[in-house]
Amino acid sequence: MSLANGRNYLAIPGPSVIPDRVLAAMQRPAPNIYHGEIIETTRSILDDLRRVARTSGNVAIYISNGHGTWEAAITNMCSRGDKVLVAMTQHFGRGWAEWASAMGLEVETIDFGRSSAIDPARIEEALTADRSHSIRAVLMTHVDTASTVRNDIKSVRAALDAAGHPALLAVDAIASLACEELHFDDWGIDVMVGASQKGLMVPPGLGFIWFSEKAAAASNEADMSTPYWDWTSRTTSTEYYRYFAGTAPTHHLFGLRESLTMILEEEGLETIWRRHRALARAVWAAFEAWGKDGEIALNVSDADVRAHAVTGARVGGGGASRLRQWLEENAGVTLGIGLGMAPPTEPAYHDYLRVAHMGHVNAHMTLGALAAMEAGMQALDIPHGSGAVEAAAGVVAREVEAFRVGR
């Protein structure tokens, strides 16, 4: 017998859980795209996207996924043959580097491995060595969704400043936006990319770019921009259709309008950041308890650089794949694969998984997923330590009490 019937919990790091309110907002007839409600809705969305990123600067919306915004950022920042420095903390940093190389850029990489954060001293060293200032931009991820490493943007900005280097700082915030504390202006970001399907709680299909005035000026000298990816027309035009290089993604916009209201007007960004931190700590506590016996361990040992939106872990002996399959078939829970941790052709590929706790997720969803995981470990005879669910519940209880009394 399976106990999977009922609402499935998709605990993967995007697409995240979509609130019923967002789905309902999208279930409506198509609007007039030439005047009226959709134009005013879009204006309010652009204002609120600035609020989510903590910036007063420019923001453009694309009909794309996150990979599309990588391309948009490159085409607007760079000219063919330009050099970029990519700080990689696993799969998605590597992917952005491959994108840049395929688009004709010279790419220098610094690989920090799959479990460690960016070391700003190495960034400063590379930039100081670039005496001709040939490096056009430094590309980094805030949270690498694969390794679940969280990088310190402020320290990388400080490295650029210490080196006295004019390179743009470009940040992939796809997995961190509306999950992790993030301040575009105060942290000195020049270009930032995001997408709709994670912390913003909207189906995949919208990509976003925020860019500073320094980046806008640099784009005037870049020669890779094409009509579709050009961010200038998407931010300065008087004709509405030019903001999307054609027909607007109307129903995604209606969904996004609802999700931004939930984020900014109801729960509030600071509270959302705190909720994600609390749920992450509950997940970490469970894995630390499980890891006292058997081959179970968090991918990132340093809690200070773990993502608060998604947690990567190892369950050895192929246990991760077996557990994922059991959960999906018997408990209605879908966990993320260990993306990029090992080639799919190698046995180690089956040792990694990810538990997402991003977006529209609360305590009972997270605790329920952890309890289901423990049931799966018992059913599959996966060796594990005891007390994991109790430890996670204790974290939740303490976090709620701390918030209640204002700590």
Report what the structure shows.
The chain is α/β, with parallel strands linked by helices and 407 residues long. It has two domains: 9-16 and 268-404, Aspartate Aminotransferase, domain 1; 31-265, Aspartate Aminotransferase, domain 2 (3-Layer(aba) Sandwich). It has helices at 20-26, 37-53, 66-77, 91-102, 120-129, 153-163, 213-219, 231-236, 250-267, 269-290, 319-330, 363-379, 388-404; strands spanning 9-11, 58-63, 83-88, 106-111, 135-141, 168-172, 191-195, 206-211, 296-298, 310-315, 333-337, 352-356. Helix 5 packs parallel to helix 6 and helix 10 (269-290) runs parallel beside helix 12 (363-379). The termini are far apart. The relative contact order is 0.16.
Show the helix and strand layout:
Elements: E1 9-11, H1 20-26, H2 37-53, E2 58-63, H3 66-77, E3 83-88, H4 91-102, E4 106-111, H5 120-129, E5 135-141, H6 153-163, E6 168-172, E7 191-195, E8 206-211, H7 213-219, H8 231-236, H9 250-267, H10 269-290, E9 296-298, E10 310-315, H11 319-330, E11 333-337, E12 352-356, H12 363-379, H13 388-404
Parallel strand pairs: 1-11, 3-4, 3-5, 5-6, 6-7
Antiparallel strand pairs: 2-8, 7-8, 9-10, 10-12, 11-12
Helix pairs in contact: 1-9, 2-9, 5-6, 10-12, 10-13, 11-12, 12-13
Uncertain segments are: none
Number of E strands: 12
How far the N terminus sits from the C terminus, by CA atoms, comes to 46 Å
- Find the CATH superfamily of the largest domain: Type I PLP-dependent aspartate aminotransferase-like (Major domain)
Content-based structural category? alpha/beta
H/E series: EHHEHEHEHEHEEEHHHHEEHEEHH
Give the fraction of residues assigned to helices: 40-55%
Q: Could you tell me the strand content as a percent range?
A: 15-25%
Indicate the mean pLDDT.
Answer: 96
Could you say what the CATH architecture of the largest domain is? 3-Layer(aba) Sandwich
The strand order across the widest sheet is 2-8-7-6-5-3-4
Tell me, briefly, the overall form: globular
